Amino acid sequence: MNRRHEAICDPVSLEIIRGAARAAQSEMEALLERTAMSAFIREKKDFYTAIFDASGAMAVGSDLPIFGDIVGPVLQHYPLETMQPGDLYWYNDCYGSRGAVSHSNDQVFLAPVFLDTIRVGFVMGWAHFSDIGGLRPGSLSPDATDHFQEGIIIPPVRLVRGGETNDDLLRAFWRNSRFPLQSQGDTRALMAAVRLGEARVAELAARFGADVLADAFAQLLARTESLVRAKLAAAFPVGTTRFADAIDGDGQGNGPFVLRLALTRTADDRFILDATETDDQAPGPVNLLMHPDVPGMALGLYFLQGEVGQVLNAGGPRAIDEVRLREGSLLWPRSPAPLGLRGLTMMRLLAALHGLVAVARGGEAPAAHSAYVLLALRGEHAGKRFLMSDGVAVGYGARPFADGVDAVYFVAQENYPVEFMELTYPVRLRHYGLHRDSGGAGRFRGGCGVVREYEVLCDLAQVAIRIDSVKNPPWGVAGGRNGGSGRILLNPGTPEERLLPPLSDGTVLRRGDVLRLETGGGGGWGHPFDRPAELVLEDVRGGAVSPEAAARDYGVAIAAGALDTAGTVALRAQRGAVKLFHRKDYVDAVA
Amino acid sequence: MPSPEPRALIVAVDIGGTFTDITLQDAVTGEAWTAKTPSTPRDPSEAFLTGVGLALVQAGRDATAVGRVLHGTTVATNLILEGKTAPAALLTTAGFRHVLEIGRADLPRRDNLWAWRKPRRPVAPAMVLEVAGRIAADGSELAPLDEEAVAEAVRAAVAGGAQAIAICFLHSFANPAQERRALEIAQATAPGLALTASSEVLPVVREYERSMATVLNAAVMPAVATYVGRLEQRLEAGGIAAPLLLMKSNGGVAGATAIRRAPLQTALSGPAAGVVGAAAMARAAGVPDIITVDIGGTSADICLIREGKVGLTQSGRVGPWPLPLPMVDMVTIGAGGGSIARVTGGALAVGPESAGADPGPACYGRGGTSPTVTDAHLVLGHLPPALLGGRMALDPARAEAAIRAAVAEPLGLSLEAAARGILAIADNTMVGAIRIVSVERGHDPRGFALVPFGGAGPLHGVALATLLGMTRVLVPPSPGVLCAQGLLAADLKSEFSRSVAQPLAGAAPAALEAAFAGLEAEAADWFALEAVPPADRATRRVALMRYEEQGFELPLPWPEAAKPRAALAADFAAAHRALYGFDLPGVAIEIVTLRVEASGRLPAPAMPAPRGGTAADALLGRQRLLRPEGAVEAVILDRSRLGAGAEFAGPAILTQLDATTLVPPGWRGRVLPAGALLLEAE
Question: What residues in A contact B97, CB-CB < 8 Å?
Fold first, then answer.
């Protein structure tokens, strides 16, 4: 029944619809986790879900700041009016989706949802597939020079039409993976999850009516937009606020590459984000094809903290009136520039957006974090090819209200347990712990990165490593000091000890070789001398801070595991002046 | 009249914040007595014995007539949730002292990246002590245990104030020898200290989850041991020689000795007793397939029971911590009768904040001013003017004022619409949880009866059933005290598992048989420890299977008689399809874990038929019920005066001491011979 008049969703139904949408997401996620095959999905949990309105605007997303316009790319090939119940669309095409996905390992599965013949919304399942072909196992390599080396590209396609699956397409895709069984299992899991979400949204539409559901989605979008807009206005004065930061390099000898952001609030309260002065694109795969919706999602997530009952959705991007990018730059590269390791640029971009807030609000913003680290070990063992993609945690920035978080990878992504690693791959872990002194000193301490030491147990293997923020460690703010850098050592403590390039591929390892990986921390917040001495002592006892750093950075004297009060008073009498940011020294701007 | 059978009495003790409730039942005749006495928080065992004494006096029986004493304790749960566990230390493999601090390096999916704080671990990193020694993934020893370092670490832990020590070494699930040796050294070095090794608590892969369980078990041990010891002393002093059995998270009971060693097994037992009680009640009523909804003041627990069997899961949590011990498979949500409704940012939310028992809902008149779910019920005419058999009057004016100020006015709704909205949101949260245990697991809720219990359950039962298309609601005889019924009905239960990890197609039958036989031998030792007579012992074989490369297993019953592997594979594929909507033909299936579930049957008490008359005999009065379609007049019936076979039609409100049941128009009720009330949609 298609009623002509607009139905209004009352506040109670709105809350019920929001709750039910969240529950549907949880169900989809549980199904994926339980049935997927690759460790990247089932142990590390690199997957997300979202629900969209009938036009394709994201109404209920994941709490993740990296989504662009997901539905749009499909509509370019398959107009809305041609869609049928039972359809399922699929793509991973970065350039073809204008950055809605930003590296090819991420597969997007999307189903329109119908109530009888009325389209009421879309459901998305998104997951990182561990290998889709390309230059090296895992499809991502610092050595890539061309996007076509980063795995098979699937433009938006209709995988299922009216319930009929195009198996030919799937077989062609699986044939391109070095691990076809995992690819097959992951595909089926993702398809089943999307079907489940589709059923749940259809039930919601049946219960409340298509037009009430549509109004509910519209209200959720409007609510998020107005909230983010109000918070932007509270944070940024009229005029232009600028912040710049750099990634170290592209792994191929080029860099640093500087990201330059300028946020303008006009007199009539329009918000314009300009990134056109960012450096040119890199030859190596650190380019971030940044969908123009991404800055709004990222700032949206930042401003939604503490707002119970609000959801991150396309209302975030709508709060920013214009995003200006320059073609050929690091943030809007030209095809076929390689994109595989865009994560490190993305992580630096998120901190740079906080840098804008810090400049506008005199330091009332989180300090910077390190980019997550990936170590990929590949080779053959017991007659079988293996790929160990180990995502390793870093430290997050301290905040004006709390320490930064120790040892986090990213939203909802988990580490591989040591026991799982040793049961699954030809490695032995010799050490896994917090990386002492990597958290930036401050009234609130930056989070620590980790140390992970691997011994190779197969004859021959090759390692790829991805560490950023080595030359440019994560900045501290409001008196807080920068966080520590990461690095990777081969055979530490032996005559053969050698530092490996932090962003590199192809290092050959043999049985018995030891890799020691140390990841970076987060910046500190506030003057370290203002941190209560008892907390510093606790950090020393717990292994997060060394006694030397306690004295040097915090002005806290510790002798024989106890606080030396007189010594601390003496040290803290030598309190130095600070500037807004800290990177190696106190500075007014970091790049 | 025959003399009462010796030791036929069963005692169930439920210690609440305010009162301690005792249920005494004669297992032979089914006759039951209840007693209530103020709780004694400083030493709960005091009220425990006082209450048992009162009940015995009522029954006119002697202490020697008691055959068993059952108790559910929340001591371990509360210590963990409140962060008040004993100071503890963790001994771990050298190089891995930060396993607990790091956790799984994740941030919860529904939390904000920039606002989240990592919860404080129950053991500070300074109290995690490394010991050299190493076991490989295949169980072989790579480096010997440094025994002197163990002793030194134990001394350091004691010097640092530890009252409990947990030991968790890498891969101890594959080879527990080093952990056992470290345990012996610790016992010798610090006699009397609470000690736990991970291979005793949770012998499964994944070091963070196992370390956490071990630490929690050790850290609640001192308090639970003291608690259980006092109860036993009191019983002895009171002349009761019967065994003390405690409820576990798996829905079974275990003797005090077993609980002292593994107190963590009680951590999720609170809601388990109610589920067991509901299952027993439904069995007696001849309804094997039920979904239970236990609604208390602050939370609701939801569980699905098929063919009378309570399912188990190992994906539970307690507070922020994962707890992969076998527990009754249920979902807990923060919505209850005391859940507070409020408007933030234009959105109406209900819970998880709760007014609790004190100050309680606004209508209790004890100083609460926030509107709660209970206030919404009162405004809509769902509650009688007074609760607790007339002892506690409700104040509709306060309920109305609270809802008007906090909900109706901010949202521009009428009082009635606001009250209905509060209930709709609370019901929706519960419906979501019911879907998780039913639809999400491949069960159609319409084939089940809904069993609402807890003080607030029967008020929501029919509304929830309607939202889910269910047509039958079964209300227990005493919905508010079903936990006691659960204790009385519980059997002794324990599970024994072993990792086998091999392909289903290739696994040698003899090796599997030997593994199962080994587990059954462990079960036999346990039966002996719990003194279960051979006739009452039962074991069930279960295989946990998955497609190769998956990370999550499905439990399937393992046939006693040989069954072709192809048939087992077909069973697995069917289960996978039912649960997830697809199977993977041609992909190999693995057996990951073998499990033997052991239960020692305890004689179930009889359930006597309710005495009473017809609905006309039970009529207390009438009151106005506000329905979406308009006001209607409902009868108020006294449930205690409804006999077996009594029938009535909605709209009706049934009052009893421990709960209120709402029967809207379009539903009919009938009292079954076993005492339960069956409500059916017309």
Answer: 433, 543
